[in-house]
Design brief:
This protein is α+β, with helices and mostly antiparallel strands and 443 residues long. The chain has helices at residues 62-69, 79-91, 140-147, 151-165, 223-247, 264-292, 309-322, 337-361, 370-375, 377-382, 384-416, 420-426, and strands spanning 36-37, 49-56, 72-73, 100-101, 106-107, 114-122, 131-139, 170-178, 189-198, 215-219, 428-432. It folds into 2 domains: 25-198, 3-Layer(aba) Sandwich (Calcium-transporting ATPase, cytoplasmic domain N); 215-432, Fumarate Reductase Cytochrome B subunit (Up-down Bundle), CATH 1.20.950. This is Ni/Fe-hydrogenase, b-type cytochrome subunit.
Length: 443
């Protein structure tokens, strides 16, 4: 091991420093294995660097992971080392483990983005066997390249690191390897990461309200579009409930019981037809807005996002990100290509649903005028029962989309912290300063 006594470039700027281990019995105390934990109340703040929790992907508790990450030469003045040791003392209120090691057992990151620390006596648990251990700490991607975790574990680490990064943290990866009886080093095992950041960077613990210092609020969705969106939600719910009842009355009396059934079916049909014609009117308004609006996010051009070769590239990158094949996808203020193509498909499917609904509605009116005769023709081509089946199937497709839409919206908001959920109420999203979205200038 090299023995340099310079502050390691392990700060959030370059990414990696020393490690820590325990030489006192307190360090071997086993604690419940909280694999994911943010020290919202326990984060120790000091001028310079603050520690904000982390993520354990092994059997280590968060306290044990923090202890490993804090191992560094005795008397080190590196800001990250100091912050980690302070946080460790806070976490172990009844005696923190000794994480100071001799300089000869520490190899700082000179020509790489991680440091190495050697601990002569380390236990993973209270009753575990003491082993000589080498700890790697530093830039998460660099540490993962050393440990070579499986794809699923690598993806899990990146997803949690992305969430931490949205709060301004840099993730210091931690991996370990033991020395066997023959003096050979075993393969490195990925343990997780610890979050650090300069004090005052990003969002503060316990307060996820974005500030204008680190985030920019962009107005994306106009009031008219938001109104149409929520009116669509209401109408689709009404159409689904009443349509399902028309297909299969699931409450109330029916004529099969041989008693007076009242006018419940008539009420349901009236609500269904009223909501349907209102929905068609909204569709017409949306088409009108697409051609006359000056808002770039409402124009008809947005319905087809693949206008040039670069757009196809972004589509493949987004698809790879959604399938966990890429670390990250291109950043968009509004909809990415995959989202927009999905919404455009829903618009087209909705238009088919309206045509089929009109065709079924035209059946008792086809002798009244030429319009209803023309609208009823699809029933002659495909059959009434087939038309009803398609009408019902599209309803279920709509609800499959609604469920996926809600899940993905909440998932994206929880990972990116951009206020996507509230955007359909307030009209604005939050983007971190210096972001470079594809569909907007650099912030």
């Amino acid at each position: 091991m090299k023995t340099k006594n310079t502050p390691s470039p392990d700060t959030p700027k370059d990414g990696a420093t020393s490690e820590k281990t325990s030489k006192n019995p307190a360090s071997a105390t086993a604690v419940p294995e909280n694999h994911l934990e943010f020290f919202a109340e326990g984060a120790h703040r000091k001028d310079g660097i603050e520690v904000g929790g982390g993520f354990s992907c092994s059997d280590l508790s968060m306290r044990r992971l923090l202890a490993m990450a804090a191992v560094s030469p005795e008397g080190s003045t590196d800001p990250v080392d100091v912050a980690l040791k302070e946080s460790l003392r806070y976490r172990f209120r009844h005696g923190a483990p000794n994480v100071d090691i001799p300089e000869k057992d520490f190899d700082p990151p000179c020509d790489r983005r991680y440091s190495l620390a050697r601990i002569s006596d380390m236990k993973r648990t209270k009753t575990g066997e003491s082993k000589q251990t080498v700890i790697v700490r530093g830039d998460l991607e660099s540490v993962m390249n050393v440990a070579q975790p499986k794809r699923a574990q690598r993806t899990l680490l990146r997803k949690n690191a992305q969430m931490a990064g949205s709060r301004g943290y840099r993730c210091l990866g931690v991996a370990t390897a033991t020395v066997d009886e023959n003096g050979e080093l075993t393969p490195f095992q990925m343990e997780g990461f610890v979050n650090v950041r300069p004090v005052g960077t990003g969002l503060q613990d316990g307060d996820l309200t974005p500030t204008t210092e680190d985030w920019v609020r962009l107005s994306v969705w106009s009031a008219s579009l938001r109104f149409l969106h929520w009116l669509n939600v209401l109408l689709i719910v009404l159409l689904s409930i009443t349509g399902y009842y028309i297909m299969d009355p699931f409450f109330g009396d029916t004529f099969f019981r041989g008693i007076e059934i009242g006018y419940l079916m008539g009420i349901m049909r009236f609500i269904h037809f009223t909501a349907a014609f209102t929905w068609m009117a909204i569709g017409a308004v949306r088409v009108f807005i697409a051609f006359v609006s000056k808002d770039r996010y409402l124009r008809w051009e947005t319905f087809w996002p693949l206008k040039k070769k670069q757009d196809w590239k972004h589509l493949y990158e987004t698809l790879g990100f959604y399938l966990f094949l890429r670390k990250e996808g291109p950043l968009y203020v509004a909809h990415n290509p995959l989202q927009q193509l999905t919404y455009t498909s829903i618009y087209v499917l909705g238009a088919f649903q309206m045509v089929i609904g009109l065709a079924l509605y035209a059946l008792p009116h086809r002798n009244e005028n030429l319009f209803w005769q023309l609208m009823a023709l699809p029933n002659d081509w495909f059959g009434i029962q087939q038309m009803r089946l398609i009408h019902a199937a599209i309803m279920f497709i709509f609800w499959a989309f609604v469920i996926a839409h809600i899940y993905l919206a909440f998932r994206a908001d929880s990972l990116e912290r951009h206020g996507g959920i509230s955007a359909m109420i307030s009209g604005g999203v939050w983007m971190r300063r210096t972001s470079k979205p594809v569909d907007a200038p650099e912030l």
